[in-house]
Amino acid sequence: MNILPFSFKNDLHELLPNALKNILRKKEDTIEIEARLGLILDKTTGSRIDINAKHPIIFSTKNTPFTFCSGVKEGHFNKLIKSFENFPKETSEETVVITNKVRKVYEAGKLKCTMEKIRIITHEIHFPNSEYDVRIAISKETFIKDIGPIKDKKNVIRRDRSRISIPFNKFRFDFTKIDNTNENCYEVELEVTEPCYDNEIFFGCLQNLVI
């Protein structure tokens, strides 16, 4: 029985090539597996890539003239949250300070944790008949002792975020609003939370998020 606010009627093996299964790996304690919505852009024109295809295409933008830009429109963001209105939710207000590979997470002005995050691999999926594309990223996250005040002030990124998290099966949907000085950003992510997860449910969630 499907209790998600969307259907799994599509043939997932046709929508996403079986090669994607080789990208995913077992979820270990220090491994983060996440997918996020955004657009694959041409670096020269700044426009979304336009590939004449009837099915999703998996590739890596590394060393290519393309780049992945994370984020969705506010209207789509709110529409997706509304589709989960009958699901239990967790909310959080945090500030994330990033420098090099180290992240400090603050909640209510107090340091919550410090971690080192190292990207292992990324793959992008272009959905030619949908509004958004997807990036799947696998990273290693290690909690570390606080490194003290950040000395390199020039290379610091600060993200003030409001997040709604929705646990489902062995995954978690994260809907995050990031408050920027000039313009707010809206991010949608799907993260694996348990080691033995079902690839097809993961694929199905992605397919329905981008439509």
UniProtKB/TrEMBL annotation:
Its main location: nucleus. Residues 89-192 form the mRNA triphosphatase Cet1-like domain. Its EC number is 3.6.1.74. GO terms for cellular component: mRNA capping enzyme complex. It is found in: Nucleus. First step of mRNA capping. Converts the 5'-triphosphate end of a nascent mRNA chain into a diphosphate end. This is mRNA-capping enzyme subunit beta. It comes from Tubulinosema ratisbonensis.
